[in-house]
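Weekly puzzle thread! Below is a chain. First person to post its structure in token form gets bragging rights.
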Amino acid sequence: MNAASTPVAFGPSRTVRLGIRRIGFELRQYFRASDQVFFTFLFPTLMYLIFATIFTGDVGEGADKISMATYYLPGLVAGGIFLSGMQGLSIEIAVEKSDGTLKRLGSTPISPVTYFIGKIGEVFVTAILQIALLLIVAVVLYGVELPSDADAWGRFAWVFVLGLLTCTMLGIALSALPRSGKTASAVVIPVVLLLQFISGVYIAFSSLPEWLQNVASAFPLKWIAQGMRSAILPDSFGAAEPNGGWELGLVAIALAAWLVAGIILSRATFRWIRRD
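Winning reply:
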């Protein structure tokens, strides 16, 4: 390739500016895909509606008694974070790689950094809207009382940001696994669904067999769900956790370790086109 046809890379400032501009483009593409909106954006709220309607009554004792609608809320919030960062992004990138979108971008001066700023921005905006919708439904339809103290919302915020960043990096890495866009959903969704069932999203984590709890503890979703329970549920519910407490320090360490692993894996596996 001669010098005239070689793309000239943009500088760091322009790379970032272009990445920020891509966020709007990525959001338009996201909400135009009706299947993605249903299975990623609306899915946690729909599942919450089902669980909160079917399972009624209260759990806990005395002043810490809460409704089942409140009890299921932190797990579905964690599931929404996982769906946005892991499932949605991995399938989206795999499809773009398969249909030639990434190949065309790779022939331009746009760097992977620009591309992923757009993708990460899309994930954060859609996840914020998704969780906001879920919380509004919980409060308006089921009378859920959200935390009123700043410490609880602080825990909610850092678990949300760290968990979403971790799932986003892992979603980028997972996008290298499907061999085509047609098989992306078949590869990704079973993995995501299985982890949701064993990580305290749909089933109370304390009711799972100990060996299954140990398996779930090796993956980030369990720690995101535990962090969200610490933010939304009364402190007394921490006694039901495997080690009798919320273990927020361990939550942060586990998510940070997975974040580093996700960055390394995404950096090692991402290509504009498949090697084969």
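Puzzle host: Confirmed. Bonus trivia for everyone else. Strands lie at 58-59, 66-67.
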